[in-house]
Write a structure and sequence with these properties.
The protein has two helices and no strands. The chain is mostly helical. The chain has one domain. The longest helix has 19 residues. It is flat. It starts with a helix and ends in an 8-residue tail after the last helix. 0% of the residues are buried.
């Protein structure tokens, strides 16, 4: 990930990149995956700066 960030993204003018890792996705149960997805939705919403409606 560090190589992609430093050699590709920064070269293309993207100054900062954050990485979120999810361990053992294959062995995670549905509850854990749902929690991860909710976290990713929250991150995307904050990064986009948009008010995206929350799914029920």
């Amino acid at each position: 990930m560090r190589q992609v960030r430093n050699q590709t993204l920064k070269f293309c003018g993207i100054p900062s990149v954050r990485t979120t890792r999810f361990p053992s996705v294959r062995s995670a149960d549905d509850r854990t995956r749902a929690r991860w997805l909710a976290g990713v939705e929250d991150l995307a919403r904050r990064e986009a700066g948009a008010k995206v409606p929350v799914r029920a």
